[in-house]
Amino acid sequence: MMLVVCLGLAGQSDGRQMKLVELRHTSRKLGANEWWDAVTGADEYGDLVTTFMHKRWGMAFQLYHDSRHTYLPFRFIPNLSYVSGGEQRPEAIMMFGPGELESVDYWFASRHLDELNQAREVDSVLPSQMEMGGWRGNKYGDNMMFEHGAVMLSQHDDSFTTPRQLVLTSDGFIYMGLAGIAVSVLYDETGKMKYLPNIRAEPQHGGACVLYQNFEIREKVLPQLLSLKASVINKYWQSFTETLKLEAVRQRANNPLARSIMPDNWSKRKDGWTWVGKGSGNMQDGCLPYGE
After folding, report:
1. Which tens digits make up the pLDDT trace of 232-256?
2. Is residue 247 within 8 Å of residue 284, measured between CB atoms?
3. Which residues does 218 contact at the CB level (< 8 Å), separation at least 6?
């Protein structure tokens, strides 16, 4: 079966229009792990990276494996019109921690895009479980969720970043970043930008992508996407939060300088230094481990 789709994205940056796509596909309903393909290999600098591409829309993103690249900005391509080919690297959009977006005219491991683009009409299925360095992926119903456990924890006020989560759907992707900001690239059947329902959306780069708040996606969107009860996701988030709070206190307990500021708040026990002051010892709970 041959499907010919003429795609137009109104208001996209630089007046870019989606390319005419002629795509052979079956009439069956495809899940995210069938619409998405991936290839793993070294980039131009020898760093291991996995590149994902959506077979229909040509959107792409990369996940690096090595721990030294844990906090690299999230780099993605909104659709095939950004893939120039030849010697020139494709144009991409980078998302930095606080939700700042920047267009860049380079893309590492660009040969991955060529390989994936040539295989877009090939039937393939991503495995139900994937592991790429610190990234772990699992299939939930028709969609896939990837998570990275690394977060940044501040000893100044015990605040911490949110864990990165990436959801693949048959329509595109949703990336939830470190600073509580998410970016999505989702298209409907006509190739127009698709918005997540019932939450605040902020189109960016002329409609090439959309920004959201992580907590709204977690509360109102993830339960449906992952076929999980909202209470299950909320329980996971509460467990994560409590674990990070305990970790902040543990790190302070193992820091002689931090303990010396208010030594009466600490006691040496069999299993190490322990907080014995008022409350939990975590500043997010209103405790004052460093005094007023």
Report:
1. 999 999 999 999 999 999 999 999 9
2. no
3. 176, 233, 237
